[in-house]
Amino acid sequence: MRPPAALLEQLTTSRLLPAYAQPSIGTGERRSRRKGAGMEFVDHRPYRAGDDTRHLDPHLFARTGDYVVREYALNQQLPVTIVIDPSASMGASEPSKFTQARLIAQLLGFAALAGGDQVQAAVPTPLGNRLSPRWHGAARADLMFDWIGKLPAGKGEDFLQALRTLHEDLPPRGLVIAISDWWHEAIGPVLDTLFAAGQEVLAIQVLGPGEIDPQDMLTGVVTMEDSESGEEIELVVDRTLLDRYRELFAQRQEELRAMFNAKHWHFVTVSAQDDLDQLFMRTFRAQGVLS
Can you give the CATH number for the domain in which 259 is found? Predict the structure, then answer.
């Protein structure tokens, strides 16, 4: 699985737009809050024992007699971690939500690499989180595409548990891109854990068209199976039930958006059938996810 070449070409000049996540690792293209060896002078500070004497400002010493060190802007990489939900419910729709999720992960990861950031992918397994190597540089994009493209759909993996423990393996103040259908209970405490750990979350919700609006659903007596538990129930589907579903769905979406917006994080809902060009070149830009 590999994203369309034409779209990759368009994304070479796009950049992820985090709200709070900070560049904190390696040498990159984003201005860090830290100061260090660089080209652009930003400030002076008093000399401290152990400082590199090559950074002393001789001109200021000649004028004032004070030992001061010249400080420079430090450009670093933003640590980006992309977490993909492989649970059974992601196998629904055609193409599947999981297929769309992997393509979105590959394309967002490419935008990060092209922008000089560092990218790692993660997926929950029954034995804990499986983490990829950390890639940096657009030349490593094919390695990332291959790793994500080969991810198998899962069955009962706990996506929320993956998010709950993920911060233990991450650099501080990074960006976590979490791609799921978000059909989970008790999401709030997990988000609080990531927030307390200094991580920013960009949530991408991938849903099937019928989940967004079940207008094409058959009416009458329908047997439905829970893709996670396998439990079957019979429902009488009519206009009243479908209208009630739409009402509850809108309510849940508003609750989810409020959870993320309260932390100034992005929450974007997409369809498994959305056109990727439209999604990346218009929707994500309009939402402030990409430049």
Answer: 3.40.50.410
